[in-house]
Every structure is written in structure tokens, then in C-alpha cells.
């Protein structure tokens, strides 16, 4: 008779029997290892674009002498203090000249010294483009977006000019990067830094405040409950700008220069905005794959399109249309391109990224 406590053990080689201790199973990565891998990718998403932007921006930063606009900035930064004002044609440039004066007192007024703030701004913008795309999409999208922005010829060009446009690009990316968590949890701890970014944007390039129209559309479309607190943060950032620039406007100055929009002017804008017209076509094509109005993609879709449409409307009445007045929208196109490539097959993504790099770098080579 068979003992009730005795059972027949199966053969060890029987594949149908599961090892209760899991010693023969393939080991899966632990949650900690997976988190570490994601963290490394998120670091790469901002670090590699920043390094690339720094390299491309520094390569020929001292090759050419200062332009007429840069010479004017040097005069403003080194002239007696009573010679600087926020009146006349310098209304938009006055805050930048004041900033450059402080920089020149610390580091001198040599060509390289005056251009370093712009280089640092583009490097910071490239890092934030990668971080923003990683935040709203994936680390892969962040890396791709940051690389696209870094290789744009206009990124390198304005990194090498002592002008406020690179700082305005940085401020626009910073404001958008801060907008995302501020709308998710709209408390003072998140909205006050956003207000600071709005202030910086207005001081660097007042016309770039058209970005707020894009942010407002996103708030009304997706985060209406945060609208009042968002408006309060915007007002907090705009009041100092309005106070600083108001006197200059009353004195007959203007905040932006450009031309009236026309067919020929509009046709030339993509080449001026991205450095190469073909790059504008590639990024516009990629953006079509990111245009569905989901919250994440809609943030950058609005950033890319709403300011351009608003500036176009203004240009019907006053001559303000200029590609440089839309430079702060270039990061949005890079993010949309990076998001689109992150959804494509690896071979397609590598091929398109290689095309963007070739077009961008080739345009920066000396002719």
C-alpha cells in the first residue's frame, strides 16, 4: 500500500514542470536597473545635444569680425552709463545692452567675450529641447529633438553673434519646459519660475512674447481649471517688462523691426529661419506626423504655429515680419521632428536624422 505522504517526483528534464524557485528561468532586469537605464537615457537626451551645440557653436566663433549690430552692442556695453537708454530705436535692445554691460565689466569686451553669452544660451537651449521632448514624449524623442536643434545652421549662427536672439530662444524653451509641470500642478512653487522665464523672454526679445499666445491656447484647450493661475503668473512676468519698455514706446521707439509680409518674403522665411530651405521642408514634413492634437504634441504644435500666425496678422498692419522674430519657434519644430522620428522604425529614423545632420553641417562649412 502506498504511503499517503509519498508522491512521485517527475523527471527533472520534463519541460512541463515549472521550477518553483525560478533558478532556471531567464532573469529579468530589476526595477532598479530599468530605472537606472531610463535615467541614463534622460541624461543623454540633454547632455549630448548640449555638447554638439557647444562644439558647432564654438568652431568658428572668432572667424568673422563683429557685424554692424554687434558693434552697436559693444558701443552700448562700453559707453558711459548715461549714454544708455531705453528710448528710440533701442527699446527692444536696451535690456540686452544692459546685460551685456555687466558681462563686459566682468569678462571684457573682446569679440569672443561678447559672443560667449549667446553661445551659452544656445547650448542651454539645446539641452532644454532634449529635456522637454523627453518630458512630454520619451528619452529617445528628447535625444533626437536635441540633436536636430543643435545642427540647425541658425543655432550655430546666433550662438556666434553678440545679439539677444539666442537668449530669447533659451528663454522660450525654458518657459515651455516650465509650463508643462506648472499646468499639471499649478501651485506657486511651479508658476513663479514660469513667470521668471516670461520676464526673461520679454527682456530679451519683446516680440517673442507671442509665445504666450501659444501657451494660452494650450491652457484653454487642455487645462482650463489652471487658466486663472496661469494668467496671474503671466501678469507677474509681464509687469516689469511693461514698466521697463513703456517709457521707450512713449518716446517713439518700437519693439520689433521687419517688413510687411508678401509672397516673396514668406517664401524666403523657411530658409532664413532654419538656415537651409530644404531643412525647413524636412522638419515641416516630420511635424505632420506629430500634429494630432494630443496634449503633449499640441504644446509644441501651438508653439510652432500660433506665434507665426499672430506675427503674420500683425505684419498686415505694421512692418514686423522677419525670420529672426520667429527664431524662438525653431525649437518647437525640432521637438516635433524628434517626436516623429522616435515613432518611426530605427532605420528610417537614422536615415532622416543623417539627412538633417548632413544638410545642417554642410550649410555651416566655409564656402
TrEMBL record:
<feature type="transmembrane region" description="Helical">
    <location>
        <begin position="295"/>
        <end position="314"/>
    </location>
</feature>
<keyword id="KW-1003">Cell membrane</keyword>
<feature type="transmembrane region" description="Helical">
    <location>
        <begin position="261"/>
        <end position="288"/>
    </location>
</feature>
<keyword id="KW-0472">Membrane</keyword>
<feature type="transmembrane region" description="Helical">
    <location>
        <begin position="43"/>
        <end position="61"/>
    </location>
</feature>
<dbReference type="InterPro" id="IPR050297">
    <property type="entry name" value="LipidA_mod_glycosyltrf_83"/>
</dbReference>
<feature type="transmembrane region" description="Helical">
    <location>
        <begin position="230"/>
        <end position="249"/>
    </location>
</feature>
<protein>
    <submittedName>
        <fullName>Mannosyltransferase</fullName>
        <ecNumber>2.4.1.-</ecNumber>
    </submittedName>
</protein>
<keyword id="KW-0808">Transferase</keyword>
<dbReference type="Pfam" id="PF13231">
    <property type="entry name" value="PMT_2"/>
</dbReference>
<feature type="transmembrane region" description="Helical">
    <location>
        <begin position="164"/>
        <end position="183"/>
    </location>
</feature>
<keyword id="KW-0328">Glycosyltransferase</keyword>
<feature type="transmembrane region" description="Helical">
    <location>
        <begin position="346"/>
        <end position="365"/>
    </location>
</feature>
<keyword id="KW-0812">Transmembrane</keyword>
<feature type="transmembrane region" description="Helical">
    <location>
        <begin position="119"/>
        <end position="152"/>
    </location>
</feature>
<keyword id="KW-1133">Transmembrane helix</keyword>
<feature type="domain" description="Glycosyltransferase RgtA/B/C/D-like">
    <location>
        <begin position="98"/>
        <end position="242"/>
    </location>
</feature>
<feature type="transmembrane region" description="Helical">
    <location>
        <begin position="195"/>
        <end position="218"/>
    </location>
</feature>
<feature type="transmembrane region" description="Helical">
    <location>
        <begin position="320"/>
        <end position="339"/>
    </location>
</feature>
<dbReference type="GO" id="GO:0016757">
    <property type="term" value="F:glycosyltransferase activity"/>
</dbReference>
<dbReference type="InterPro" id="IPR038731">
    <property type="entry name" value="RgtA/B/C-like"/>
</dbReference>
Amino acid at each position: 500500500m502506498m504511503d499517503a505522504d509519498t508522491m512521485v517526483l517527475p523527471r527533472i528534464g520534463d519541460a512541463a514542470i515549472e521550477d518553483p524557485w525560478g533558478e532556471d528561468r531567464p532573469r529579468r532586469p530589476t526595477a532598479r536597473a530599468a530605472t537606472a537605464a531610463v535615467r541614463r537615457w534622460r541624461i543623454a537626451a540633454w547632455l549630448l545635444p548640449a555638447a554638439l551645440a557647444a562644439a558647432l557653436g564654438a568652431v568658428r566663433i572668432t572667424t568673422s569680425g563683429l557685424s554692424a549690430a554687434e558693434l552697436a552692442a559693444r558701443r552700448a556695453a562700453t559707453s558711459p552709463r548715461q549714454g544708455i537708454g531705453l528710448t528710440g530705436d533701442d527699446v527692444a535692445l536696451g535690456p540686452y545692452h544692459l546685460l551685456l554691460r555687466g558681462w563686459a565689466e566682468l569678462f571684457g569686451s573682446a569679440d569672443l567675450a561678447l559672443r560667449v553669452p549667446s553661445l551659452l544660451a544656445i547650448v542651454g537651449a539645446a539641452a532644454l529641447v532634449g529635456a522637454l521632448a523627453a518630458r512630454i514624449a520619451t528619452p529617445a524623442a528628447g535625444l533626437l529633438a536635441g540633436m536636430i536643434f543643435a545642427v540647425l545652421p541658425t543655432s550655430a549662427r546666433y550662438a556666434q553673434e553678440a545679439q539677444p536672439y539666442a537668449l530669447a530662444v533659451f528663454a522660450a524653451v525654458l518657459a515651455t519646459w516650465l509650463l508643462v509641470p506648472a499646468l499639471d500642478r499649478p501651485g506657486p512653487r511651479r508658476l513663479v519660475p514660469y513667470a521668471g522665464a516670461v520676464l526673461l523672454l520679454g527682456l530679451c526679445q519683446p516680440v517673442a512674447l507671442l509665445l504666450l499666445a501659444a501657451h494660452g491656447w494650450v491652457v484653454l484647450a487642455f487645462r482650463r481649471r489652471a487658466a486663472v493661475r496661469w494668467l496671474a503668473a503671466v501678469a507677474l512676468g509681464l509687469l516689469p517688462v511693461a514698466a521697463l519698455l513703456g517709457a521707450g514706446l512713449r518716446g517713439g521707439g518700437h519693439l520689433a523691426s521687419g517688413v510687411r509680409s508678401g509672397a516673396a518674403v514668406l517664401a524666403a522665411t523657411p530658409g532664413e529661419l532654419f538656415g537651409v530651405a530644404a531643412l525647413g521642408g524636412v522638419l515641416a514634413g516630420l511635424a505632420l506626423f506629430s500634429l494630432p492634437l494630443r496634449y503633449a504634441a499640441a504644446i509644441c504644435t501651438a508653439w510652432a504655429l500660433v506665434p507665426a500666425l499672430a506675427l503674420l496678422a500683425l505684419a498686415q498692419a505694421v512692418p514686423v515680419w522677419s525670420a529672426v522674430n520667429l527664431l524662438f519657434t525653431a525649437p518647437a519644430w525640432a521637438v516635433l521632428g524628434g517626436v516623429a522620428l522616435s515613432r518611426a522604425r530605427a532605420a528610417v529614423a537614422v536615415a532622416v536624422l543623417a539627412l538633417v545632420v548632413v544638410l545642417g553641417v554642410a550649410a555651416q562649412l566655409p564656402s
